[in-house]
Amino acid sequence: MYAFTYEAPTSTAAAAAQAAAGARPLAGGQSLLPSLRLRLADPGQLVDLGRIPELAGIRKEGDHIVIGAMARHQQVADSAEVRAAIPALADLANHIGDRQVRARGTLGGSLANNDPAACYPSAALALGATIVTNQREIAADDFFVGMYTTALEEGELITAVRFPIPRKASYQKFRQGASRFALVGVFVAQTASGVRVAVTGAASSVFRQSALEAALNQSFTVASAAAVKVDVSDLGSDIHASPVYRAQLISVLTQRAVKEMASSP
């Protein structure tokens, strides 16, 4: 591990100023700390966001659930507000990694990192969430740019995420056994603007599956989802799965999500 200085401000303004000056933000540290240990990152200065009260908390505001960027995965999973309004989001959070990861990892950190196999990006994209920063508000459709890349600018920090409450939603994940990341994860949501389907783990970044969305907006049935031939051209290939296998998982997981949603009250 390279030497670095450590700062722990108690306000978003102070943290943003330090980040703008070159400090690396530290949220839950589930990705950053392993990189530091392996000397894959040399930030020089870390700014810990964990002592900023305004970045914490979960609340219901009208037809939205607003979650602070520093909310831990387990806090999202256990939140009565989330469980009542968006149970699929609570279930997603409850199956991230293991207990230690859920106790430390944060919503904002996961979205800012945009790991290709992370679960939260699929929820944000499928639900049409708004990512609130210290500078602006960014629609989820515009936020995820590419592998480990987002629309965040230098010194810009996520402060909260605003999730519209859907009519129904379901997240289905086929887990990679060693890492517990999603080999493929599919989040299906019936929103005010129609059905949205977001896929993680299958490509270089989370994405919406337009063919499945079109079919399910026409007929929200398992048969309709099964009839869609998932395009493999942009899907990833690695030691765990081929593009064809991932395409099959996208289809099967979408069907499972639709079946679950159809059977729920």
Automatic annotation (TrEMBL):
Entry keyword annotation includes Oxidoreductase: yes
Any GO MF annotation of the entry: oxidoreductase activity
Entries under InterPro entries matching the protein: CO_DH_flav_C (IPR005107), CO_DH_flav_C_dom_sf (IPR036683), Diverse_Substr_Oxidored (IPR051312), FAD-bd_PCMH (IPR016166), FAD-bd_PCMH-like_sf (IPR036318), FAD-bd_PCMH_sub1 (IPR016167), FAD-bd_PCMH_sub2 (IPR016169), Mopterin_DH_FAD-bd (IPR002346)
Short name of one Pfam family: FAD_binding_5
Record flagged with keyword Oxidoreductase: yes
Record-annotated FAD-binding PCMH-type domain positions: 1-168
Domain of life: Bacteria
Keyword entries, A-Z: FAD, Flavoprotein, Oxidoreductase
PANTHER family attached to this UniProt entry: XANTHINE DEHYDROGENASE SUBUNIT C-RELATED
Protein name: Carbon monoxide dehydrogenase
Organism ancestry: Bacteria, Pseudomonadati, Pseudomonadota, Betaproteobacteria, Burkholderiales
